[in-house]
Write a structure and sequence with these properties.
The protein is α/β, with parallel strands linked by helices. 51% of the residues lie in helices and 16% in strands. It is built from 6 helices and 5 strands; from the N terminus they run αβαβαβαβαβα. It has a 5-stranded parallel beta sheet with strand order 3-2-1-4-5, with helices on both faces. The longest helix is centred in the C-terminal third of the chain and has 29 residues. It is globular, with a radius of gyration of 19 Å.
């Protein structure tokens, strides 16, 4: 009897966690045929300035999406976060060596929230296609909905354990921040 009760409580706990997760990370909206802008989220270079694998994969994703006509102009967002190399400028160099496309670099952002904040300051609230890794895209789109009415995501698969663990921690932090903001808002309204 106790084992059955514990099992039921465990299942209820898991269902509650899933509902909380889906509240903060809803499904990514269906992609439209074309966007005026795509937002390529930055990724740091290695300390010697060479490209990280994730940087290359994100850039290749942007190149393929542009070739397929998914967007008109690419915004690359990311500052010098891990070292002196500005993420967006490094990624711009990589892309421009391979294909000519209209690119706007945002160079101040230090995290995903700021990627969206500073990008919206540049382009306003226009439809945007968010480009990132498979581990990052769901949180990126959850943040993106705070800045853009129309958005969707495009990603490449990413199954590196270190990226998955870092993203789990980042999603927990995101939920905590969003919960605190809602709690503070309720206090102000009351």
């Amino acid at each position: 009897m106790i084992v059955k009760m514990l099992f039921v409580l465990f299942i209820l706990f898991v269902v509650c966690l899933l509902l909380v997760y889906l509240h903060y990370f809803p499904a990514i909206p269906r992609r439209k045929e074309k966007y005026p802008y795509a937002l390529l989220l930055g990724c740091p270079s290695h300390n010697d300035g060479s490209y990280a694998t994730s940087q290359i994969r994100r850039c290749e994703l942007a190149i393929e999406a542009y070739k397929k006509g998914y967007f008109d102009t690419l915004i690359i967002s990311g500052g010098a976060v891990k070292n002196e190399y500005v993420e967006s400028l490094q990624m711009d160099k990589y892309i421009q060596k391979r294909i000519s496309m209209p690119i706007v670099c945002e160079t101040k952002a230090r995290n995903t929230w700021e990627n969206f904040q500073f990008t919206k300051e540049k382009i306003g609230d226009v439809p945007v296609l968010i480009l990132s890794s498979g581990t990052h895209i769901r949180r990126a789109c959850a943040i993106g909905k705070s800045f853009f009415k129309e958005y969707s995501g495009l990603w490449y698969p990413d199954h590196k354990p270190k990226h998955i663990l870092r993203e789990i921690a980042s999603r927990c932090i995101y939920i905590s921040i969003e919960y605190k903001k809602k709690k503070a808002t309720k206090h102000i309204v009351s």
